[in-house]
Amino acid sequence: MAISGLDIYKLLPKTNCRECGFATCLAFAMQLAKKAVSLTSCPYLTESSRRALEAAALPPIKLISIGEGETRFEVGNETVMFRHEEKFHRPCGIGFIIDDALSDSEILQRLEKINKLRFERVGQELKVNLVALRQKAQHKRFIEALKLFSGKTNLALALMSDEPAALKEALLFLKRRRPLVYRATADNLAEVSRLAAEFKTPLVVSAADLEELSKLSAELTDMGVADLVLDTGDKPVSQKLWDLTQIRRQALQKSNRSLGYPVLVRVEKDDPYEEAIEAATYIAKYAGIVLVKGIESYEALSLLTLRQNIYTDPQKPLQVEPKLYSVGQVSDKSPVLVTTNFSLSYYTVLGEVEASKIPSYILSVDTEGMSVLTAWAAEKFTPEKISESINKCALKDAVAHKKIIIPGYVAVISGELEDASGWEVTVGPKEAAGLPSFLKKL
Ligand code: SF4
């Protein structure tokens, strides 16, 4: 939670000396709250006020980088409990666990399958972030298995082992890949923290109880380990959700700085549907990293789609450029479908037009990223706006006919649209799924 202007004001000298360029300390405080000025502009701050204000300016949840170069991804830096208050900033990392007890060929097969978990949806690339190698066998096998990863994946890595010696050898092998080290507990805190400090890697700190977790996190910070990820171990979903919510709440209130880090959750179920449902719950609230066992594309795609929906800015819907798009080998006889510039609407129509194999134009009208019915209700998809788009995109130069097709949901505007545009309006199907058969019959 950001510090308010009034809270800042309480820490200022309140002399209204104007040296900061503002008429009053209160005016300066308000600008500081908006991050429009720097603390250094006031030369009369006491040391304790400066420290308090600097601490208040730190993000409530620390930004943690895992991996290096193209493998790198970041989690944390969240500022709100609820997406509609602002937005969620860093998409939850999605990763997969591979046990070293598998055979070499099984490990390589899993790795290959994980690497291929990339999809395109509404014009964006969706990809997974992390592969975690977990020690189940002897120390020697853990390192052998890790060596199989060499040159075989561009994803960030996590090392899961309870043996500090195995972790050290793995870190030496990985050199600068900056893997996530899993995990420091009350039993191995000193040894594992030394490794994290020496290799400058992010470290997972784990305790079942939040108070204990907070205590360990504070001890690690004192030992110089700054990049932490929290873990509260295996628990039923309701308890895990409670932990995640409490950690987020306390971090945002800055009532407990030692909980101001992203949280990692492991979900390992034999049933991929159960696993996906549980992982989805944590992606929604408030995991920073979710590790799963299942590597099937249908499971990964569900999680990535959910993540994409949650981590878009609710004030800025995903949009495509409003313009005239051609699909296939269009001619001046091709049909023209009108839709909005909301990405999901546009790409759904595009997919169905491609499936129909009938070359067509799609006129994407600027509705500020709203879908058809929302835009119509908000008066952004009106006969006047559509007519304006027809003229702006020079539709008359692209086709020899004067016919357009509008979505079935806005059939009610067809008459007015004909009057406003001078184009003949055909009402298309309500759902884009009806477009292939509609276009074939046209
Ligand atoms: S310089 Fe400091 S003390 Fe002077 S008006 Fe600005 S905030 Fe107040």
What does this structure look like?
The mean pLDDT is 94. Helix 5 (139-148) packs parallel to helix 6 (164-174) and helix 10 (272-284) packs parallel to helix 11 (297-310). The termini are far apart. Strands 10-9-8-7-6-3-12-11 form an eight-stranded parallel beta sheet, covered by helices on one side. Helix 16 (414-421) links the parallel strand 16 (403-406) and strand 17. It is flat. It is of the alpha/beta class and 442 residues long. It has three domains: 5-57, 3-methyladenine DNA Glycosylase II, Chain A, domain 3, CATH 1.10.15.40; 64-310, Dihydropteroate synthase-like (TIM Barrel, Alpha-Beta Barrel), CATH 3.20.20.20; 324-441, 3-Layer(aba) Sandwich (Rossmann fold), CATH 3.40.50.11600. It contains 17 helices and 17 strands. Iron/sulfur cluster is lined by residues 12-13, 15-20, 22, 25, 28, 42, 44.
Question: What keyword list fits this structure?
Answer:
single chain, 442 residues, alpha/beta, 3-methyladenine DNA Glycosylase II, Chain A, domain 3, TIM Barrel, Rossmann fold, 3 domains, eight-stranded parallel β-sheet, three-stranded mixed β-sheet, 17 strands, 17% strand, binds iron/sulfur cluster
Instruction: Provide the CATH top-level class of the largest domain.
Output: Alpha Beta
Supply the CATH superfamily name of the largest domain: Dihydropteroate synthase-like
Rg, nearest Å: 27 Å
Task: Please name the CATH architecture of the largest domain.
Answer: Alpha-Beta Barrel
Which structural class best describes the helix and strand composition? alpha/beta
Q: Which fold name fills CATH's third level, the topology of the largest domain?
A: TIM Barrel
Q: What proportion of the residues form beta strands (DSSP E)? A: 15-25%
Number of domains: 3
